[in-house]
Amino acid sequence: MTGNMWSYQDASGYRPGSELTGFRVEAIDGSVGTVDEHSDEVGASWLVVDTGGWIFGKHVLLPAGVISSIDFEATTLYVARTKEEIKNAPDFDREKHISDDEYHRELASYYGAPHI
Q1: I need a labelling partner for 86 at 20 to 30 A (CA). Which of 6, 10, 52, 103 fits?
Q2: Is residue 55 part of a domain?
Q3: Is residue 45 part of a domain?
Q4: How far apart are CA 1 and CA 27, in angstroms?
Q5: Which of 74, 79, 50, 75 is CA-nearest to residue 63?
Q6: What is the pLDDT at residue 91?
Q7: What is the number of domains present in the chain?
């Protein structure tokens, strides 16, 4: 996992070492779910978002580069994507996430450059 898509953007306000698990996730057009897990590894940062009942418990892997801002007081992070884009994202696959660089390239390709 390389490139800006897998890095927190400076403008997001991310603080290295912050715990984001449990934060609400807001898309451009509404709530998406909550952060189930996250990584802040330099150049390989991501979030696993539990979409809850919104799309029947689907989990999606979001590259950190799609985060536009983080409100630590409100425990909410905002992503520069629509609910529809997240709904149609490739399903989170833990096995591929751990061992398959092609899976990460597919996700980066799907999300494209951040719209921040």
Answers
A1: 10
A2: yes
A3: yes
A4: 23
A5: 79
A6: 80
A7: 1
Which DSSP state fits 24?
A: E
Return the bridge partners of 35, or none: 49
We report the CATH number of the domain holding residue 99 as 2.30.30.240
pLDDT in tens, 90-106: 888 777 776 677 787 88
Tell me the one-letter amino acid at 45. Answer: S
Q: Has residue 20 been placed in a domain?
A: yes
Residue pLDDT, tens place only, 15-55: 999 999 999 999 999 999 999 999 888 888 899 998 876 65
What's the whole-model pTM score?
A: 0.84
- Look-up of token digits 């909550």: 34
The answer to whether residue 116 sits within a structural domain is no
Query: How many CA atoms lie less than 13 Å away from 83 in the CB half-sphere?
Result: 9
Q: How many residues does the chain have?
A: 116
Q: How far apart are CA 50 and CA 35, in angstroms?
A: 6
